[in-house]
Amino acid sequence: MTGISANKIKWIRSLHQKKHRDELGLFLVEGEKLVQEALYFLPHAVQFVAHTDEFELKSTSIESTLVSPAELTRISSLKSPNKVLAVVKKSNEQKAINSSGLTLVLDGIQDPGNFGTILRIADWFGINDLVCSNDTVEIYNPKVVQSSMGAIYRVNVHYKKLSDWLKIESRPIYGALLQGKNAYKEALMEDAILIMGNEGRGISKDLIPFISHPLTIPAFGQAESLNVAVATGILVSEFKRK
Length: 242
Known about the structure:
- By secondary structure, the protein is an alpha/beta fold.
- It folds into two domains: 6-89, CATH 3.30.1330.30; 102-241, SPOUT methyltransferase, trefoil knot domain (Alpha/beta knot).
- It is 30% helix and 22% strand.
- It is built from eight helices and ten strands.
- It has helices at residues 6-14, 18-24, 32-41, 69-75, 112-124, 142-148, 162-167, 228-241, and strands at 26-30, 46-51, 64-66, 84-89, 102-106, 129-133, 156-160, 173-182, 192-196, 213-216.
- Strands 7-6-5-9-8-10 form a six-stranded parallel beta sheet. It has a four-stranded mixed beta sheet with strand order 1-4-2-3.
- Helix 6 (142-148) links the parallel strand 6 (129-133) and strand 7.
- Helix 5 (112-124) packs parallel to helix 6 and helix 5 (112-124) runs parallel beside helix 8.
C-alpha cells in the first residue's frame, strides 16, 4: 500500500502530545534502528509502520504504508526523520521491582535527553528497574524514546510516590548529594538503591531522611555541578566496579 490518508496523518500527529498518548495507549518510535528493535522486542505491540522505500519491512502481518520522504517529515516528531516511523502500543504489564541488585530512583528528572541517557546507562550496566517520581518526565515522550536508543524495551520503568515506596524498602539507600561522602572511597553495596535528584534542585527534601548513605562525586576542577545523567553514569560505574 502506498500513500497515507489524512486520518492516519491526524492519528499519528496526535501522538506528539502526551494527552493523546495517554488516551490512546500508544507512542511513536522513529528511525531505522529503534523501529527494528521494536519489531524484535515488541513484535505484537507494533500497530502501524510508515516507511520510505529505503526501509525494508520484513513482517507482512503489520499494517504498513509506503510514504515519501516529504510525507514522513509531515508526520514525524523529529527535525530530520530517518526512513521509518512506527506506532507502538504501550505496555500495561505491571512488573514487580527486583528486591535485589541495584535499583535506580529518579526524583523529578525533567529533561527528556537526560532521562533517555539514564535509561541507556541502566541498560548498559544491567540494571533492570528505574523507579521514578510521578513528576519525572514521561517515558513515552518522543525525545526520551529517541535518546534511550532502545533501552526502553529492556529496562522496567515504574512511576510511584517515592516516599511511600522507600518506606517499605529494606535495602541501603544511597543518594547523590553535594555534602555526601566520597563515592570513590566508600564500600558500595551490591544490593542497594541509588537516588538521583532533579537537574536544578537535587533530591527533594522529603526524601532526604530516607538516605542512609549520602554520596558525592569529588570535584577536581572549577565546575559547580555535573549533569545528572553524567553523574548517574559515574556512580553506577562505581557500584558495578566494586
